[in-house]
Each structure stands twice: as C-alpha cells, then as structure tokens.
Amino acid sequence: MCVRMIAPEEVSISSTAANLPTDETEDPTNAMDTTPMATTPMDNTPMDTTPMATAGPVTAQSTTAAAETMCDQCNIDDIRFTLEPSGDAGADYSTTPRDPVDGCLRTEVGCIRSDGKQCDTTEMFAVNPTGEHSIGDGGSEAYAILACANDGTYAFMDITDISEIKCVFTDCF
Asked: What pTM was estimated for this model as a whole?
C-alpha cells in the first residue's frame, strides 16, 4: 500500500486565516432583512408582501398519554394461598413487605411450617390464567419475592397476573 506524501516545501502554515472569528458580533434580531420581497407569482395574481410575525418558537403538543402505572397499588390479600396436603395443621404461609424498587411494591411470600416438622421437599407454585408455575422450592420451606406489576397485579419474573400461591409439602415428619 502506498501513501502519497507532501514535500515539506509545498506545505505552508499560516497564523491567520480568512475564516477565523473576529471581535465583531452580529445581532441575531437584525440578521434577517424584514423588507418584503418584490416577487411576482407565476400566475400574475397580487401577492401579500407583509412580513410574517412570530411570537417565539412553535412546539407541538404530544397526543400520547403517559402510561399510568399501578405498581404501587397491589394488595397481597387479593392472592389466595392454598396449602397441600389440605388439613395439615402445621402447614402455613407468610407474607413480608420488602423495600419498593422504583416505587413499585414487592412482597416476599413463603411456604413455611409452624409446627417444627421437617419435610423432604416444599414446592411453591404461582397460579395465573395460564396455569401453575414453579417459583420456589426447598426442604421444609420455600420463598419467593413477588413484584407489583404496572397493571396492579403481582408477578414473579415473567409470570404475570398471579391470583394464587400454592404450597405443596411432601413427606413431612
């Protein structure tokens, strides 16, 4: 690859240039000539040559309404808790408010034992219109943090519109 070189004697460096700024400032209000133009339309009809007056910049108003969020309005009492096996007196659940994120409520839900029994597994499911979705598991307890979505319902990750938390305790002794 060849690069064209300029001989040193062909280069001239100047400390002044024709386009350097000067101390003279231009008044922007007088920069435009407001004298009407003398033009004739192509069809020879009379033309209004009165200069247009403006009252400042023109801005368009947005017609799109701001999205209203209801992520601070979830109520954990709207979620039903189901404990299985039913009739297990030691099976219980817990709800604990957590610090909001960007103004949106968060609640920790837990499937717990109140009788001190140990279980082989505890599974937690979120129930929504599309079915049951596993959101947590553990030995004798399981926890998950639900976030209040923009529509005012609880969600867990991509599982939205949660209406029920189902706790399943297996082989407790």
From this structure: 0.61
